[in-house]
Design brief:
Two copies of one chain form a homodimer. Chain A has ten helices and 19 strands. By secondary structure, the first copy, chain A, is of the alpha+beta class. Chain A folds into two domains: 129 residues, Creatine Amidinohydrolase, Chain A, domain 1 (3-Layer(aba) Sandwich), CATH 3.40.350.10; 226 residues, Creatine Amidinohydrolase (Alpha-Beta Complex), CATH 3.90.230.10. In chain A, helix 4 packs parallel to helix 5 and helix 9 packs antiparallel against helix 10. Chains A and B meet through helix 5 and helix 8 of A and helix 5 and helix 8 of B.
Chain lengths: 363, 363
């Protein structure tokens, strides 16, 4: 990310301060600090002021790095970041300060209040998360790259016979992870799920020592992180030549529901309506009780972020919002299927970033 | 961890409730929930009551897992864990509830207060973290195992010629990580640091594409996680046959300071005094400004936890507290040395868990 992009983001946040009647905002959620400055260290806080005098605070470990990554913001090197920035706001004559009440702990707020008792603290709400939901094209490029790494890793894994009977789930997961890192991922997006046989019915199964057998479903849910941006994809394969009727039935059902969910992605579409487009198909097929989670979520600097696609999710989609679409059907004790893509909402229909086929792969 | 161990831990927390004049505590910090129940899922909260009617809440993904891992506690499957447990406390006739004010966000507290306006909420402070600082022997066994994995991984890496000129830092880090996983680590404890040449002067360097050269310091800070428990060790090696005088000087200095720090570990020793035992040696040698962090920290279910060993750290050590001892000297632009062990405070002197030699290794 470049300085100008970060500066534009701070300006967008600044534009929201007036509605809060606050001349400044204290941003302490680290991923939000990164988004607004480019600083990637593990400790940082940011004061964004209506008059443009923004200040980034971090500790002594990050003197050099913060200067390199956030050259266009004043930097302050301190130990206690929240109180030093609150003091800075007071010194600038501000009597009100917006803060991230969804991130700041009760003790953290008490420390700031004790240090600056005259300062009126009001919630910034999730203003930065809201801004982050809409990506700029540079961010989408990074997501595209992260998705391409995941696509290529799975393709290579399958081509190398890496998903086969006789291997443990953990071996397959490590193989997939190593391929993503070899292909340039800086990290995996989250703990890779490889769930085989009956384990595939567990939505979030941690890969273990189960040995994959012929006829198993193998559900792989994984992603690559590239320059901070996360990809997210699930594919469910079958081992061996024969696919049981029940496997084919739920695979085709989930694939159809997933298609309907993708097709519902549109600028101004209600988030709950997108969820319903896929869910109704599964409910109508009599498997509603076997689909126990939401349809998807935004993805970017966090693997799960706004917007949320669920049955009761508020809000609407907008242009340049990347989201996942990932319905599933899970039959306890037998097996389950989830199919997930990462896509970007666009005016002329969603852009698919995860390009691996969704035809049932028999390996 | 077994049910009886978890039950004994809840009893120790229960004993603290009287001092808070609270008949119940709401534990929402996930690692604390794990410590007090054995439940390892990603979403859980626990109500600990003075009368012993404890309740674990989690969501529908963890019905089976919570029953297996925490069979001796009543379990509640819900979506909003904090408010449902607060309601439970009210239903039990309690008018005061202790909560983790260092973990609960301002919004989280507001939600509980709105749901149960008659409930008096008081801080539990870091009571569970305080309990966790002193390990039982079963926990120390897991730490010993985690440390042994890290020792063996480094030994194997060096024996295989894995730390050598021509490799990138990232390649060495991935090799070390793979060896820990092969040896039974469930994960690495934290992002492995491999910092070569001038990068070794950066205390927390992220391994990158720098190619290791002859004569480099290579600082490796890494650990294995085993059954949830983290090991932490740093060794600084030299590449090639010749060691420069400045390298030998700071290596010997850090090794001596580290020895003094280890020798200061004792039951009832002041945490700040342990820090001083090592720091004074470095300051006396004129390198005080090149040692920019604390001496060490507790280690267990978290890689960094109580107690803290620093210049201004409060408190004293106790029997069965595992801690790291990790002084360093960093010469910007040239290189740096850190030497770190994990040890357990014992009445008859500290028990060393990381057994790799601290003689200067030339590879």
């Amino acid at each position: 990310m470049s300085g100008p992009a970060a500066a534009a983001r701070r300006d967008r946040l600044r534009a929201r301060l007036a509605a809060l009647d606050a001349p400044a905002a204290l941003v302490t959620r680290l991923v939000n600090v990164r988004y607004l400055t480019g600083f990637t260290g593990s400790n940082g806080a940011l004061l964004v002021c209506a008059d443009g005098t923004d200040v980034l605070a971090t500790d002594g470990r990050y003197i050099t790095q913060s200067a390199q990554e956030a050259p266009d913001v004043e930097r302050l090197i301190e130990r206690r970041l929240d109180t030093v920035l609150a003091a800075r706001a007071v010194a600038a004559g501000h009597t009100r300060l917006a803060y991230e009440s969804h991130e700041v702990t009760v003790d953290g707020l008490a420390a700031v209040t004790a240090a600056e008792p005259g300062l009126g603290l009001v919630s910034l709400e999730q203003a930065v998360e809201d801004l982050r939901a809409v990506k700029d094209e540079a961010e989408i490029d990074l997501l595209r790259r992260a998705c391409a790494i995941a696509d290529e890793a799975l393709s290579d894994l399958i081509a190398a016979g890496g998903v086969r009977a006789g291997r443990t789930e953990r071996e397959v997961a490590r193989d997939l992870d190593a391929r993503m890192l070899d292909l340039g991922a800086e990290a995996v997006s989250f703990e890779t799920i490889v769930a085989s046989g009956p384990n595939s019915a567990i939505p979030h199964h941690s890969p273990g020592s189960r040995v994959i057998e012929g006829g198993d479903f193998v559900k792989c849910d994984f992603g690559a992180t590239y320059s901070g941006y996360h990809s997210d994809m699930t594919r469910t394969l079958v081992i061996g030549g024969a696919v049981a009727d029940w496997q084919r039935e739920i695979y085709d059902l989930v694939a159809d529901a997933q298609r309907l969910g993708r097709e519902a992605l549109a600028v101004d579409a209600e988030c709950a309506g997108v969820d319903a487009a896929a869910r109704d198909r599964i409910v109508d097929a009599g498997h509603g009780e076997h689909y126990t989670h939401g349809l998807g979520h935004g993805v970017g600097l966090e693997i799960h972020e706004a917007p949320w696609l669920g049955a009761t999710a508020p809000g609407r989609l907008g242009d340049r919002m990347p989201v996942t679409v990932e319905p599933g059907v899970y039959l306890e004790g037998r097996g389950g299927v989830r199919i997930e893509d990462t896509l970007v909402v666009r005016p002329d229909g969603p852009e698919l970033l995860t390009l691996t086929t969704k035809d049932l792969l028999i390996v």
